[in-house]
Please model this.
Amino acid sequence: MTQPTPADIWVIIPAYNEEKVIRQTLEEVLAHPFQVVVIDDCSTDQTAAAAKDLPIHFLQHPINMGQGAALQTGNTYAQAQGAQWVVHFDADGQHRVADILPMVAPLWAGEADITLGSRFLAGGSGEAMPALRKAVLKLGRIFHGLLTGLWLTDAHNGYRALNAKALATIHITQNGMAHNSEIIQETARHQLRYKEVPVVIRYSDYSLAKGQSIWNAANIVGDLLVKRLFQ
Amino acid sequence: MKPVQFILLPLLVLLLIVFTKRLRKQVLLKGVFICIILALMVLTVFPDVTTTLANWVGVGRGVDLVFYFGMLGLSVSCLFLYLRSVRLEEQLTELARTIALQEADSPSEKPT
Model:
């Protein structure tokens, strides 16, 4: 196989009501030769108009279904287009484009099937985080450890990269925000090789206001319990 | 006949008609509902039956027995409805995803 290049990387960006930031985020990503897939999760604002004329793959859900559903739509699309390397990227500018290649590097080297961004590895951005958020993330880490047996250094930052094997193996059924835990569960269940990569998450006022409140952790646990009990 | 029986009986008859008409294909569900409604009719006409039944199973008053079973029945139907809504959501997701994939715009299709 020929050496993969950045043009072989598919950056999947779910977006819901991100009209203020989506264009800037996309322009930053498009400064590189990546393939960019935007899934507009039926936004009620001008997200679609702000993104559509850029050289991207643009998909739109006919109804709002949540970030997990949007990511799976992006995965399915990329897979159908023959993607070998996929990165999940946030629309609101909290993920850095500079971390995309380091996230994919272990996949290219054949060391892992899936990489997960971590703010708490050396070189990550964990130090700058509000204390309460940090505490909830630590709990999330323990929750994931108990649930899946994977003891990660971080949980829930949404930055991850998948190779073709992980893409074909993991099917996200959690439409809401529990998809992150589901992906970790699936990684453990299918014994995919995983690796954590230090990333810097930028907390702007916008992303903090828009991002998940820490109470959402309770919703996530609820979604996962329901799934475990009834399916 | 007491006034309450005049209110309850027509309502039960109405329910019986609705269920027999509506649930044409779900035979099992239909059977269960019809049995429940018929039982409720009997209990409406002969309220003392509930007290006798209650005493058999160790419950003081007939009303309490009906209440307990009512709660149980409601909980079970809530669970079934919930599971059904989960299934529907899964189907809806697949449907919406299919539409999104069919109507995807790729960069090469855009006017430059």
